[in-house]
Specification:
The structure is a single chain. The chain is of the alpha/beta class and 724 residues long. It folds into 4 domains: 3-166 and 217-293, Alpha-Beta Barrel (TIM Barrel), CATH 3.20.20; 310-398, Translation factors (Elongation Factor Tu (Ef-tu), domain 3); 403-495, no CATH class; 518-647 and 692-723, TIM Barrel (Alpha-Beta Barrel), CATH 3.20.20.220. 29% of the residues lie in helices and 26% in strands. The protein is built from 21 helices and 41 strands. The strands form 8 sheets. Strands 29, 30, 31, 32, 33, 34, 35, 40 and 41 form a 9-stranded mixed sheet that branches. Strands 1-2-3-4-5-6-7-11 form an 8-stranded parallel barrel, surrounded by 5 helices. The mean pLDDT is 94.
Length: 724
């Protein structure tokens, strides 16, 4: 059976997930997680969460899925050591250098490759498997046929997102938030640029009506969960570390029921009433996603970027004080509603039917509610169900989830009282004092049964208790309580398992690169090549079409950062994703591998990468620190490249705006009237920054140890400024 993996943004969400039936939870601490704006867990709360989950037999995975800068490495590893010592079951990680460091330092600490690592093909999976990671969280764009193929041809565990928010860009490959608001998605502070308003512009004309052009629907795999079970997916993951405990409880409950019913009957049992409740708690409309090959026009919801709720009626009349609504569903006092066309929401504090104040209204009722502005005759959505939330809160707070145990107590005259309990995996035997003969009233089996079944605030209940006792014996009540409490305490200790702590020295074999001073360039057009071909560039990076057109020994074939299939290539390549590093031998890596520290540099060099382009998101000082750290640790010089000019690729997406609006030469326009060029190639949409990056003082980069400076040319036609 696959693992059901639920999100936990705080302790209440963790308890809700466990109560609803998850097998594992994933959560973040206060450091190095990709959801910096979630409540997250302090170190003390992490210890509490791990122990609480382990008592219930639930695993805990902690996210450390951001890129790590050189100056953070020591504190990062201290945090990892803390998690390891406190028995976390696995770490979810993005940074390839830190994955290598952890793997070599703590060889039995389980690591999972985050979806931020951009693993989307079999070669990428093979690489992280080679690096010793236990599991790969595949990109949400990976379809079920590819997942099946990967599962059949690798030995690593696969984890798939089945429900929740989708990024429109490939995860780990989006710079939009970083470029627009200086808040990096790769550092856990994504501002949600894809949830903002944009216009699609072609020939200076606006093509769209609705404005949230990049805002995706929520993934929903309930009806297709059986397909993922059949192909052997190891972990089914629900997104939602920033969602409420009510959401976590309801979505986990729905998928628990669906998975269990399919395992038992090969049939998916969907509770549509609960699904409706879930929609009320949170939804952006649903899509099957690229996971199940949804059509391009079914990926986004351009109407609204946040919670929609469910339709419950229509306004049939209003003035500036009251709105009259014909209900198509139930409405209660304290529910939240929104009027669609006005985009106006409120909490219902009073409502009337036939001029009488009421607390509950049902389908078909015509009600009147107070409002603060005149409302159009529009649809009404319920966005909060007060009674539902109250009901779920009560279930969570009461927490009636119990672990079944079996017990056997032996009370033989003049023999030591013995209690044996088992949870099916762990067994405890507790021995007490000798059993005495009763002087007055002897103890009965019913007495023993009643006393032992009083398990108080423990998480256990006896599903079977076998009592073997002689007649006419006396056992003090305190003796029964003590033997029971001691046995339960020992069972708790066994359930709170501890991993063996193993730490070893990190080492890696590296080649030394001589210090050089190279100028490289990426070209998009033949015209650009004709203008620069006489200049002394070391490498000229070009894509497939242009590569065929130019005859130049300096040319290097640039591959995509999304690769769904690989040609057999025996030439120098500039590659943009980990799969290509595994597939090809003669490679240099592009900026999209997100290299931000010296350990990532070392790992890639150790894998045979000849030249490494550093992340766009690094400052000059951070680059300097990488080089200093590398040289100090390894006593060798790295071969690094920095891009100093060009429009950054802000997004790469399987979703295609041009196809949706029948456009060709289009731009995305933000609220500041900045225009981002859209280029579609190989069924991938790329969105470029509206202005080029222009780093100054280039000689300073050479002085600190950078070997290669690169210029990227996209649509620049007049490049005389550049040639000078």
């Amino acid at each position: 059976m696959p693992e059901l993996l639920s999100p936990a943004g705080d302790m209440e969400c963790l308890k809700a997930a466990i109560l609803a039936g998850c097998d594992a939870v994933y959560l973040g601490g206060k450091l190095f997680g990709a959801r910096a704006f979630s409540n997250n867990f302090s170190n003390e709360e992490l210890i509490e969460a791990i122990n609480y989950a382990h008592l219930y037999g639930v695993k805990v995975y902690v996210t450390i899925n951001t890129l790590i800068y050189e100056r953070e490495i020591n504190s990062f590893m201290e945090y990892v050591d803390f998690l390891y010592r406190n028995n976390v079951d696995a770490l979810i990680i993005q940074d390839i250098g830190m994955a290598s460091l952890i793997r070599k330092t703590y060889p039995n600490l389980e690591l999972h490759a985050s979806t931020q690592m951009h693993i989307h093909n079999i070669e990428g999976v093979k690489l992280v498997e080679k690096l010793g990671l236990k599991r790969a969280v595949l990109a949400r764009e990976t379809n079920i046929d590819t997942i099946k193929y990967i599962k059949e041809n690798t030995n690593i565990e696969l984890e798939i997102f089945i429900h929740g928010a989708l990024c429109v860009s490939y995860s780990g490959q989006c710079l939009m938030s970083s470029l627009i608001g200086n808040r990096s998605g790769n550092r856990g502070t994504c501002s949600g640029s894809c949830r903002q308003k944009y216009n699609l512009i072609e020939n200076n004309k606006k093509l769209n009506k609705e404005e949230y052009l990049l805002s995706t629907k929520d993934l929903n795999s309930l009806e297709n969960i059986g397909q993922l079970i059949e192909i052997g997916v190891d972990s089914l993951k629900i997104e939602g570390r920033m969602k409420s405990k009510e959401y976590v409880y309801m979505v986990t409950k729905l998928y628990r029921k669906a998975i269990d019913s399919y395992i038992k009957n090969k049939k998916i049992d969907i509770d549509y009433k609960d699904l409706k409740y879930l929609k009320t708690i949170f939804n952006r409309r649903y899509t099957k996603g690229f996971l199940f090959n949804a059509e391009n026009n079914d990926i986004t919801n351009s109407y609204r970027p946040n919670h929609l709720g469910i339709e419950i009626g229509k306004v049939i009349g209003s003035d500036s004080n009251f709105a009259k609504i014909l209900l198509t569903d139930e409405l209660n006092i304290n529910d939240g509603i929104r009027f669609v066309d006005n985009d106006y929401g409120l909490i219902v504090t009073s409502m009337f039917k036939n001029k009488s104040r009421i607390k509950t209204a049902k389908k078909g009722d015509i009600i009147t509610i107070p409002i603060k502005e005149k409302i159009k005759n529009t649809l009404v959505l319920k966005t909060t169900d007060y009674n539902l939330n109250k009901k779920i809160d009560k279930i969570i707070s009461e927490n009636n989830k119990k672990i079944n145990i079996k017990g056997k107590i032996i009370a033989k005259l003049n023999k030591n009282l013995t209690l044996q309990i088992s949870d099916g995996k762990n067994e405890v035997i507790e021995v007490g004092n000798k059993v005495l003969k009763a002087i007055n009233r002897p103890m009965t089996k019913d007495d023993v049964n009643e006393r032992l079944n009083k398990l108080g605030n423990t998480i256990y209940k006896f599903e079977n208790l076998n009592i073997e006792m002689d007649d006419n014996v006396f056992i003090p009540i305190k003796e029964l309580n003590d033997i029971k409490n001691n046995a339960i305490s020992k069972l708790n200790e066994k359930r709170l398992y501890k991993y063996e702590y193993i730490r070893q020295e990190y080492s890696i074999n590296l080649k030394n690169y001589k210090k050089e001073k190279n100028y490289n360039i990426y070209l998009s057009t033949l015209k650009q090549y004709e203008k620069i071909k006489s200049l002394p560039f070391t490498h000229i990076y070009v894509e497939k079409e242009l590569y065929k057109l130019i005859n130049d020994d300096r040319k290097v074939l640039k591959l995509e950062r999304v690769m769904n299939e690989y040609d057999e290539l025996d030439k120098l390549l500039l590659v943009g994703e980990l799969g290509s590093v595994n597939k090809y031998k003669n490679v240099m890596t592009d900026w999209s591998l997100n290299v931000t520290n010296s350990y990532s540099v070392a790992l890639l060099h150790s894998l045979g990468v000849k030249q490494i382009t550093l992340s766009y998101e690094l400052t000059f000082n951070q680059i300097k620190q990488i080089i200093e750290g590398y040289k100090t640790r390894y006593n060798k010089h790295p071969n690094l490249e920095v891009i100093v000019y060009g429009k950054e690729e802000a997004m790469i997406s399987k979703f295609n705006l041009n196809k949706l609006y029948n456009a060709n030469n289009s731009y995305l326009e933000d609220r500041f009237k900045n225009r981002y060029k859209i280029v579609v190639k190989n069924d991938l949409m790329k969105i470029y920054n509206y202005k080029p990056r222009k780093l100054e003082n280039i000689e300073e980069y050479f002085k600190i140890g950078i070997n290669n400076i690169r210029y990227n040319l996209l649509d620049e036609e007049n490049i005389d400024f550049f040639i000078k």
